[in-house]
Automatic annotation (TrEMBL):
GO biological process: fatty acid biosynthetic process
Classification via PANTHER family: ENOYL-[ACYL-CARRIER-PROTEIN] REDUCTASE, ENOYL-[ACYL-CARRIER-PROTEIN] REDUCTASE [NADH], CHLOROPLASTIC
Name of this protein: Enoyl-[acyl-carrier-protein] reductase [NADH]
Residues binding NAD(+): G15, S21, I22, I95, K167
Organism, as annotated: Neolewinella marina
Catalytic center residues: Y150, Y160
Catalytic activity entry: a 2,3-saturated acyl-[ACP] + NAD(+) = a (2E)-enoyl-[ACP] + NADH + H(+)
Classification via SUPFAM superfamilies: NAD(P)-binding Rossmann-fold domains
One annotated GO molecular function: enoyl-[acyl-carrier-protein] reductase (NADH) activity
Length: 266
């Protein structure tokens, strides 16, 4: 991709764990399109993942932050402004983790203290992130904030469990903060509802491989890849989409509008 759509833009990208991560692909695309950015993940993920390898290749600084910690987020955005040399034009929140899914608990037998932790990591972290950006006045005018979500926020996908409610909450936070950020300094806030994608988080859901194939057959364009998601994110970080805000945008090859595709029955 040769276009320099994001030339001069400064960003912060959460959630790249390894080269399968959607955020990893977003970072690759943003770098190709001329953006500079910092990369962040939870300290524990930095030990188990391969973020440092990406950072070295793209010449981006890694700033560890647990997205549930206000203190870590304050340090992240203050430091990012210093490193990047100005206010932040775009932020990607690509964070999801369910304790109950990870431990194989059925939806009718969830542990509610784990559920609250899941909500904190997967959804409340988005509010915390926006609040720190808002109060610290870190976003540049006409900036763009994106969160990644899934259609289980609107329809029932039983094995997605409590992540469905996490995503519904995340989408609602994005809409509400879209109002406040729009009024403050024309910053837009949206969520992208992505196809099933083969990543660590995706593969943690029971029956994911079979479901991945089902969604691929249901979608007239097939499942959208992580790379394609990166390209879509780049358009939403660019100046070409300045009036798109408070939206949940489906990036799913048409899946969300299908009732039945004969291909999926074969
Ligand atoms: N894979 C899919 O099928 C799919 C589909 C739609 C939406 N999404 C969403 O895309 C986003 C990215 O997930 P992915 O599929 O690339 O998987 P991934 O496992 O590569 O990324 C999830 C990231 O969340 C990070 N994280 C977890 N707890 C954190 C914390 N406390 N602080 C900071 N970071 C933390 C992990 O370290 C990891 O980098 C998630 O929001 C996910 O729900 C994924």
């Amino acid at each position: 991709m040769s276009t320099q759509l994001l030339a001069g833009k400064r960003g912060v990208i959460f959630g790249a764990l390894d080269n399968q991560s959607i955020a990893w692909q977003v970072a690759e695309v943003c770098a190709e399109m001329g953006a500079t950015f910092t990369l962040t993940n939870a300290p524990v993920a930095l030990r188990f993942g391969s973020l440092n390898e990406l950072a070295e290749r793209l010449n981006a600084e890694v700033i560890p932050a647990d997205a549930t910690s206000i203190e870590d987020l304050e340090n992240l955005f203050t430091r990012s402004e210093e490193v990047l040399g100005g206010k932040i034009d775009f932020v990607l929140h690509a964070i999801g983790m369910s304790l109950n899914v990870r431990k194989g608990k059925e939806y009718t037998d969830l542990k509610h203290d784990w559920m609250l932790k899941t909500f904190d990591i997967s959804a409340v972290s988005f509010h915390k992130m926006c609040q720190v950006l808002y109060k610290g006045d870190h976003m540049a005018d006409w900036g763009s904030i994106l969160g990644l979500t899934y259609i289980a926020a609107q329809r029932t996908f039983p094995d997605y469990s409590e992540m469905a409610e996490s995503k519904a909450l995340l989408e609602s936070f994005a809409r509400s903060f879209g109002y406040h950020f729009g009024e403050k300094n024309h910053v837009r806030v949206n969520t992208i509802s992505q196809s099933p994608t083969m990543t660590t988080a995706g593969k943690g859901v029971k029956g994911f491989t079979e479901f991945f194939d089902y969604a691929d057959n249901m979608s007239p364009l097939g499942n959208a890849s992580a790379r394609a998601c990166g390209e879509y994110c780049a358009t939403l970080f660019s100046d070409l989409t300045r009036y798109v805000t408070m939206q949940n945008l489906f990036h799913d090859g048409g899946f969300s509008s299908m009732g039945m595709n004969p291909k999926a029955l074969k």
